[in-house]
Amino acid sequence: MSESLGSAVPLSTTEPRPAAAQRVLPLRHPGRWIASAIVLVVVAQIVHGLATNPFFQWDRFQYWFLRPTILDGLLITLEVTLYSAVLGLLVGILLALARLSESPVLRAVSWVYIWLFRSVPLIVVLLFLYNFSALYKTLSLGVPFGPAFFTFDESRLATDMVVAVVGLSLNEAAYAAEVVRGGILSVDQGQHEAASALGLPKGYQFTRIVFPQALRSITPNYVNQLIGLIKGTSLVFYVSLLDLFGSVQSMGSTYPGDIVPLLLVATAWYLILTSVVSVVQFYVERYYSRGALRSLPPTPLQKVRTGLRDLRARVRKEAAI
Questions:
Q1: Which cell locations does it reside in (predicted)?
Q2: What is the model's pTM?
Q3: Terminus-to-terminus CA distance in the chain, angstroms?
């Protein structure tokens, strides 16, 4: 028995190749390459059409892009967006807290406000405010059904800028309230219970524990609202405020042959503004993701450096083989 085992011939006499000499072949994805090639062809066709079609008049686009009239309208767009975003967010936070409060009156008023301004189109709100002086020529502050302490002329107060900012803020607050409320509800209930168990004041619980965690959910959703607000400012043209879109419309009426390049100028500036907001969104989300993720997501520059480093390592490996 022992002799038969000792005389057994091994099945394979070849020595295994060292691990360093073994080459791992990557998994092939022919469908992915075909789809990528089709997409590149379509994109190339679109770019070629944009660059060679004389209908777009790129020389006139270059002429109008940095004209003072366009830049003045762009500045008004930025001002309206900034004021409306800040006021809308502040009012939205108050509405969200009222919606989550234990007072039935606050909950009811907040719900009605959100329901009303989410139902009425923004252009209707702006036009209503623009003609508000026809309904109330003077506004007063005092005791209901009693004497008035302060009275002032509404037409002097409601300038075109004020009407635009108030209208956009009222509309924005309704959507911001739901975004903030959803972010607060996304915070784990255990965080509220732990803060209450420590005896922390309600205001401290909200500002230091609940709201910072809610911002992880609020930020991406509210940035979507902010991008919509930037585009929504184009409606203030109907209340006689010449923002970016209003300036383009005005110049298009004066120079009808340049309507297309003027619209392209407005499109390019809106793309730039929304791109800047998206970049800011990335870094804000990255900041508030600390503590929730083991490692922070890489920045675009870090991704480029990592890609170049991996490419150099792959080239050196191919050359060594």
A1: Cell membrane
A2: 0.76
A3: 48
Per-residue pLDDT of 190-205, as tens digits, reads 877 787 787 778 778 8
Dist CA 69 CA 247 (whole Å)? 7
| Cβ–Cβ under 8 Å, residues 160 and 241 | yes
In the predicted structure, residue 2 carries a pLDDT above the cut 70: no
Q: Give the span between the Cα atoms of 176 and 197, in whole angstroms.
A: 30
As a whole number of angstroms, the distance between CA 88 and CA 211 comes to 17
The DSSP result for 193-260, as a single string, is HHHHHTT--HHHIIIIIIHHHHHHHHHHHHHHHHHHHHHHGGGGGGGT---HHHHHHHHHHH-GGGHH
Helix or strand run (H / E) with residue 150: strand 148-153
Pairing of strands 138-142, 148-153: antiparallel
* Separation between Cα atoms, residue 75 and residue 81, nearest integer Å: 10
Domain boundaries, given as residue ranges, for the chain: 68-256+275-320
Tens-digit pLDDT profile for residues 193-240:
787 787 778 778 878 888 888 888 888 888 888 998 998 898 998 888
| 3-state percent helix, strand, coil for the chain, nearest multiple of 5 | 75, 5, 20
DSSP tag of 206 = I
Q: How many other CB atoms sit within 10 Å of the CB of residue 247?
A: 25
Residue type, 97: L
Q: Write down the CATH superfamily of domain 68-256+275-320.
A: MetI-like (1.10.3720.10)
Chain center to CA of 133:
35
Contact by Cβ (8 Å): 191, 213: yes
CB atoms within 10 A of CB 239: 19
